[in-house]
Automatic annotation (TrEMBL):
SUPFAM superfamilies: E set domains. Keywords: Signal. Residues 255-322 form the Secretion system C-terminal sorting domain. This is T9SS type A sorting domain-containing protein. It comes from the Bacteria. The keyword Heme does not apply.
């Protein structure tokens, strides 16, 4: 009896560790009886998770979901109708020709924004293009090469060179095995991968790897471009570390010297509350709570390479690239 009780206790602990995710959809213009959310978290059931009307055309449901990457759609009347998307719609991922919404659950409860049925909420607000910084750690590459490239899709003339190999999509050597570039990309979900010397060599992934999409033949990295951001990658390792880059509004902000062989001096026109520095793999290497308008970021213990500093001030949050020589 004691052993049986212990098993029940473990099962209860596992269930309680899940995350509460709230889904919300605007069903304006649809003719239906009951909407649902259907996805890989409920085996694509057409009637397992019904939504509740919370006023007007807005329907919601909160589900307990464990950490992981998921695909889903809003549906109604047991698959009588469903979200309809095209490849590249910014809130979706395309696998095996199916265009579904994408959800990443990572250790915390979330209330997702209310989205129109068969549309992305990102398309209804904000700018249509963004600045994306890519930093790739090539130190794990086993051979020799001359150039590193980022190859992938284009959309409306912007993107990764339309899989061209070597056509101006070369990354800059940042030192310490790191290569990077900054691109202006339209709001879209792109597929891409890192290659060397054109297509002499390329990354290889398997279907289901984190942050990848596949058609069954080719499996590529995937990025959702819906805001300014910095993407940290490691050669041939699926996944990505994403740091958002938001404006500081009217705040004057300065870091110098950068690059540095010693320390960085950070100054702002108002109080800087928190500074967190990450290495290229996303590991936290420095945390400070200065609560003043100037601070010294000590780099003596840091290795040569590129770091990202997330700075939280009174007027907003900003992420900047730091270089240690």
């Amino acid at each position: 009896m004691k052993q049986f009780y212990f098993i029940l206790l473990l099962i209860g602990t596992t269930i309680s560790a899940q995350n509460n995710i709230t889904f919300s959809v605007d069903m304006s213009g649809q003719t239906f009886t009951q909407p649902y959310v259907s996805g890989s978290f409920n085996s694509w059931s057409g009637d397992a998770n019904a939504l509740t009307n919370v006023g007007g055309d807005i329907w919601e449901v909160t589900l307990s979901i464990p950490d992981g990457e998921y695909e889903y759609k809003f549906t109604y009347d047991n698959w009588a109708g469903q979200d309809a998307f095209s490849q590249g719609d910014v809130c979706t991922i395309t696998n095996y020709g199916n265009h579904n919404r994408r959800l990443v659950v990572d250790g915390s409860d979330m209330v997702l924004p209310t989205t129109p049925f068969s549309a992305c909420v990102e398309n209804t607000t904000g700018p249509s293009s963004f600045t994306v910084n890519f930093v790739v750690d090539m130190s794990g590459y086993g051979g020799s090469f001359t150039n590193v490239h980022i190859n992938g899709e284009n959309y409306n003339g912007q993107g990764f060179g339309n899989w061209c190999g070597d056509c101006g999509n070369t990354l800059t050597d940042l030192g310490g095995g790191l290569y990077g570039t900054t691109l202006t990309l339209e709001e879209y979900s792109y597929q891409f991968k890192i290659t060397v010397d054109g297509w002499t060599d390329q990354e290889n992934f398997s279907p289901g790897d984190p942050y990848t999409a596949t058609d069954g033949t080719y499996t590529n990295r995937y990025i959702q471009v819906n805001e300014d951001k910095t993407i940290n990658l490691e050669w041939n390792v699926a996944g990505q570390e994403t740091l958002d880059v938001n404006s500081f509004n009217d705040e004057k902000f300065l870091v110098y010297p950068n690059p540095t062989q010693g320390d960085w001096k950070l100054s702002g026109s108002s109080i800087i509350n928190n500074v967190t520095v990450y290495d290229i793999l996303g590991k936290q290497v420095l945390v400070m709570k200065p609560n003043r308008d100037e601070v010294i970021l000590e780099a003596s213990s840091l290795k040569t390479g590129v770091y990202m500093a997330k700075i939280e001030g009174q007027k907003g949050t900003k992420t900047i690239k730091l270089v240690k020589n």
